[in-house]
Structures are given as structure tokens and as C-alpha cells.
Fructose-1,6-bisphosphatase class 1 (Longibacter salinarum), 342 residues
Amino acid sequence: ASTRPDLGDIKTLEQFILEQQDRFPHSTGAFSRLLRDISLAAKIVNRDMRKAGLIDIYGSTGETNVQGEVQQKMDALAHREFVLALRRGGECCLIGSEEHAEAIPLDTSSEGDGKYIVLLDPLDGSSNIDVCVSVGTIFSIYRLPDEYDEDEPDLDAALQPGTEQIAAGYVVYGSSTMMVYTTGNGVNGFTLDTSIGEFLLSHPDLTTPKTGRIFSINAGYYHSFEDGLCDYLDWLQEYDENDPNRPAKTRYIGSFVSDFHRNLLKGGIYMYPATQSSPEGKLRLMYEANPMAWIAEQAGGRATDGHTRIMEKSPTKLHQRTPLFIGSEDMVRRAEAFLQGD
Ligand code: AHM
Ligand code: MG
């Protein structure tokens, strides 16, 4: 017998967004349309990714991006799809993307209100694509502050602290494709049913376990970590008959969205600290750390750079990096205590 729910039991992402919108009587629907544009781009990226091996879009473009990293063809394609969807929708006046040096102003004269700023990593972990490992998209949405003009937004309008986000989410293109997002009222997850082309609510009110047994870090850099972090990693791996979570298990895909998603569901901590070659860490504050930090917090977890709450960091540039410790509250607190030498 089929276990597929019938129409009476399912809720599409679109329905869910509209229901949320109805809770705000003065809403214009612009924000709902923006989320719809993002989910449409995600479906297109998903489609192209599933065909990647067949239509010669694996591999690099031969270019490097603003971070000096080799740009994969799928990076460029995903960037393009999201920009096109947002431009067409008209609700977004400014895009900041990992794949573009400057924030990109959009023409908002025809469609939509153009009141929103979208920061995104169109395809995170893309070095994994050629080897069939899952990747993701991360996005963060801000309102254009009143003092800016949506027809000519100053690029600095994008530099707001994470606490000002009005929505944040990610899409994981894994064994299934899921979109998970928050608008500050908890976290909800939607699984793509490719047979009907809709994201369906599959994980309502997602919460993360308060503690966990998984730690995710590139241990290859162990010798360049600060002492407090090495002590924490050693502590995690010690056997303790009174602690069912130790020795902890290591899981590291090298695809932030996938590592984060697994830990969110199962309980765990993801760490990308400062290293010798990346003294500020590797991940980007504005479109990787901030959105995931808000999702973690909304699910009951925690996110810091070891000393400061991620969402309270003041951004100075679009592609700013930050060390990141994110996941189950107890684990992140313990990491902070080790880092701060308590
Ligand atoms: P990217 O945005 O260029 O794809 O880089 C980010 C990725 C993350 O997905 C992943 O967690 C990390 O880089 C892995 O880095 P490393 O290979 O140094 O462990
Ligand atoms: Mg990335």
C-alpha cells in the first residue's frame, strides 16, 4: 500500500506561507511572493543538479570567485537562477551573493515593491557536486531600511546584523530535497515532492535536541587550532561511563548545509574555527553563519564565534568571515567554556 499522504493531509509551502501571511492583516503579500520566488529558484537548481552529470555542468568554470575559490559550473548556474527569480519577482532591490564581489542592485521599477534585501550562498559545498555528495543553498532576508531608496539602494544597506533578519532558510539537495526556514516563529521544514513539483510541510515546528552526540569539524586542521578547542575535542572523545554522549561521534561531510541539517535533527555541534590559513575562519557571516544561527536559535540551539553571539556581530563587509560554533545548546556552551578557558 502507498504511504503517500492524500491531498487532504498535505500542506504545500505556498499554502503555509499564505496562512502565515493571513496572521498579519496589513500584509501586502510582498514577503510571501519573495519566498515563493526563492522556492521556485530552488526547484530549478534542484532540477539542474539532478541532471548535472548528464548535461555537462559538472566541474569548474575555469574562473575563481571573489573568495579566490574555484567556481564550479553549478555555482554560477545557481547564482544565475536565484538572481533571475528575484529580479523577475520584483520584491528584492539588492542581492548579496557569495558568487559576486559587490551587492547587486535590481531594477524595481516595474514589478513588486522592492523592499527586501536577499543575501545568499547559491550553492554551498559545491566542491562536493562532482562526487555526488549533497549540497545546499543558504539565504537571509532583510528589509531595506527606510532611509534607503529602493530605486538606488546604497550597497551598504546589506550590512545589517543578523538580529535584523526577517527570514532565513536553507535548501538541502540531498537524498531528498528539503527547504527549512524561519521568520522568527519557530522553524518549519518542507520536503520536495518531485512528482508534483511542490515543497510539502514534512517537519512542522522543528526543534533541535538540547544536547547531542555528534561533532562536525575538519579535524585535519587540529594542529592549527587554539589550545582550548583541542581540549574540547579531546574531552568529546573521552570515554565517560556516566555520559551517554561520550565518546562523541565525528561526522563531517564538508558541506555545511548537510552537516548542519543532520545535526539540527539529531543533536550535535558543527565547528569551523579560526585556522592558520583562515585566521577569521572560513564561513561567511552574512549569508552562511547568520541565517543558520537564527535557524539554530529558533529551533532551541545556539550559535557563537566562541565569544560573541553570531547574530550580534556587526558586519563591516559583505564577504566577511567568522569562526562558527553552532548546534545543540549544551554542546555549544561547553565549547565556549573551553575556548574561554573556564
Ligand atoms: P563554499 O561556500 O565555497 O562551498 O565553502 C564552504 C564549505 C562548507 O560547506 C563546508 O562546511 C566547508 O566549506 C568545508 O571546508 P573544509 O574543506 O576546509 O573543511
Ligand atoms: Mg558557501
Observations:
- Residues 69, 98, 121, 124-126, 218, 254-256, 259, 282 surround AHM (ligand 1) (CB under 6 Å).
